[in-house]
Write a structure and sequence with these properties.
By secondary structure, the chain is mainly alpha-helical. The chain has 13 helices and two strands, in the order αββαααααααααααα.
């Protein structure tokens, strides 16, 4: 779907440049300056992100003959898609999972989540995950480390952490584990270790959904929930780190050296 969006928002679906300046998308041609490249922000703009469109406009990437008409056509087309399309496969489902990040947060959300800066932060989150999706390889965990000890420190008060309240995102991520289990399992690609990690990932995401809903209702969290937030770094590291035997089966030297950013156009 994102490649389809790109195809509809470059020459010759979109015509010549009508503005001044040299935006990223501009390419010289025998027909004059054209929109030779899309931008990653084109996709969230089609999916309804007003902030993505504002950035594209401010940086001159919408100043082409026919861009506005093509964008409106795509927005209507994607808005009309049924739920069955968004859950048709893992790729579509991943994009569906990320869509709530593009929605403007209204009443009931913390004041800082209703700021323009938070909208930009969520847009960066969306783009980062979409980049991983396009890269289409396994995620790698950072190596663990130990803090250099210089003495016995007094026990600090336990930190009471906070989860960014995005319950819909956590719920969709949790729902995404089922087709992953079925798809990998049906192809004989899901070993015991991966199956256990997927189960634990689903449990973690459902816990984050519950915590988010409590936060949005203004309810206090249980001590066990605060403890889980404090330990979430270790939990995520365990979920994304595999035994040497498994790692050897699912990665290669090419994977280790492959750049994250992939050509998309």
């Amino acid at each position: 779907p994102d490649s389809y969006v790109f195809q509809q928002l470059v020459y010759d679906k979109v015509k010549g440049y009508q503005d001044s300046g040299e935006p990223f998308t501009l390419s010289p041609s025998q027909a004059g300056p054209i929109r030779g490249f899309p931008r990653g922000l084109d996709v969230p703009a089609v999916l309804g992100s007003a902030r993505a469109l504002a950035i594209l406009t401010a940086e001159g990437d919408t100043g082409y003959d026919g861009y506005a008409e093509q964008l409106a056509m795509l927005q209507a087309e994607f808005a009309a898609l049924p739920d069955e399309q968004w859950t048709a496969n893992l790729y579509w489902n991943w994009l569906y999972t990320l869509r709530p990040l593009l929605e403007v947060k209204g009443e009931g959300y913390p004041y800082f989540m209703r700021s323009p800066a938070w909208a930009d932060k969520d847009l960066h989150t969306w783009l980062g995950s979409w980049t991983e999706l396009r890269h289409d390889t396994i995620l790698y965990a950072k190596q663990s480390y130990a803090v250099f000890a210089t003495g016995i420190m007094p026990e600090p008060e336990p930190v009471r952490g906070y989860v960014e309240p995005q319950p819909e995102v956590y719920a969709r991520l949790a729902a995404l584990t089922a087709p992953m289990r079925e798809g990998l399992g049906g192809r004989g690609l899901l070993g015991d270790e991966m199956a256990r990690k997927l189960d634990r990932m689903e449990q973690l995401l459902l816990a984050l959904k519950t915590i988010s809903e409590k936060e949005l209702r203004g309810e206090g969290l249980a001590e066990a929930e605060y403890a889980r937030i404090r330990a979430i770094g270790d939990e995520l590291e365990e979920l994304t780190t595999f035994a040497e035997r498994i790692k050897g089966e699912i990665t290669s030297q090419a994977d280790e050296r492959m750049a994250l950013i992939a050509d998309v156009h």
